Amino acid sequence: MSILSLKNINYCYPLENEPVIQDVSFALEKGKVYGVIGENESGKTTLCNIMRGFIPNLYKGTLRGEVTFKDKSISEYNIGELAAHIGYSFQNPFTQISGVKDTVYEEIAYGMENLGIPRDKMTQRVDELIVLFQLEKLKDQNPFELSGGQKQLVALASVVALDPEIIILDEPTSQLDPKSTEDIFQIVEYLKKAGKTIFLVEHKVDLLAEYCDEIFLLYDGRLVMQGKTAEVLSDESILQYRVQLPQVTLFYLKLVGKKGKVPLTVAETFKALKGSGE
Ligand code: ADP
């Protein structure tokens, strides 16, 4: 069942003539993970902002087409209501930190406070998230004193805290080291198992290959490829859209086969790749 759908979306920023999103249509199904790729300035962040109702509600411009959340146009929801359903973590974690809370713990609770969630429920949820995101050692620290990567984790935990049905992640691992990046993908897997729908903008194709159900490829504001992860990433026409496929991903896809069962994780494939001399 589709939870969010876009139909013939076109969008032009204020005072611009050229549309940056052109005729984009797709439907997201509940409980699936969608990986979104595309070179810089292909329209990924703009698309995220359209999906969460930020455009054209708070950011004007000319939007055509229809975004539907649960069979109702998103223009019929108020922006606060929509934010509780469709969580969004910014590309830049510095933008996301509220700036009004003194500790990581309070920062994660902040959005829930605004939604009026009862205190005992809120405390329980923050405690769970501190463990899930491995923030135990940082929980009493000031969010502004954290590194970029740590801020990114806190920003994501704050979004997950609101328990939205759809979670849009705009390059959530851009500031993270490989270990924390893997941790984020594990959290994505956990959220998927909890029935969440994830829309994940990410450059790390090797990890998308392993964790996503489907891949969307944007090129110059158009959705040029879309489908099952292995099918899209194995399709040679992807190369014309300047997507870099790491060697490990190509090898992984060879092992997976177009529709076959995934035999190995990327880390295991990497080991096999080293052993094979490819
Ligand atoms: P991506 O996330 O793939 O890098 P963006 O959605 O940020 O792409 O940008 C898509 C296009 O929209 C780019 O050409 C960018 O310059 C343009 N753009 C982004 N924000 C604005 C804005 N506020 N005003 C005008 N043009 C913008």
Structural description of this entry:
It is a peripheral membrane protein. It is found in: Cell membrane. By secondary structure, the protein is an alpha/beta fold. It is 40% helix and 22% strand. The protein is built from 12 helices and 10 strands. The strands form 2 sheets. Strands 6-7-8-3-9-10 form a 6-stranded mixed β-sheet, sandwiched between helices. Helix 5 (104-114) packs across helix 6, helix 5 (104-114) packs parallel to helix 7 and helix 9 (205-211) packs parallel to helix 11 (247-256). The protein is globular and about 50 Å long. The protein starts with a strand and ends with a helix. The model has no long low-confidence stretch (mean pLDDT 89). Bound molecules: adenosine-5'-diphosphate. Residues 13, 16, 20, 38, 40-46 line the site of adenosine-5'-diphosphate.
Task: Give the helix/strand layout.
Blueprint lengths: L1 E11 L8 E9 L3 E5 L6 H8 L2 H4 L4 E8 L2 E2 L5 H7 E4 L3 H4 L7 H11 L4 H14 L15 H14 L4 E5 L7 H16 L3 E5 L3 H7 L2 E6 L2 E7 H6 L12 H10 L9 H11 L2
Helix pairs in contact: 5-6, 5-7, 9-11, 11-12
Adenosine-5'-diphosphate binds next to α1.
Which molecules other than protein and nucleic acid are bound?
Answer: adenosine-5'-diphosphate
> Could you tell me the mean pLDDT?
89
Q: Per the principal axes of the C-alpha atoms, what is the gross shape?
A: globular
Radius of gyration: 19 Å
- Main sheet summary: 6 strands, mixed
Highest CATH level, the class of the largest domain: Alpha Beta
Helical residue percent band: 40-55%
Oligomer: single chain
CATH superfamily of the largest domain: P-loop containing nucleotide triphosphate hydrolases
Which stretches are low in confidence, meaning pLDDT under 50 for 5 or more residues running?
none
Strand content: 15-25%
Taking the alpha carbons of the first and last residues, their distance comes to: 41 Å
Care to count the β-strands?
10
- Domain count, please report it: 2
Per the CATH scheme, the topology name of the largest domain is Rossmann fold
Which structural class do you get from the secondary structure elements? alpha/beta
Domain ABC transporter: 4-245
Membrane topology: Peripheral membrane protein
Family: Belongs to the ABC transporter superfamily.
Keywords: ATP-binding, Cell membrane, Membrane, Nucleotide-binding, Translocase, Transport
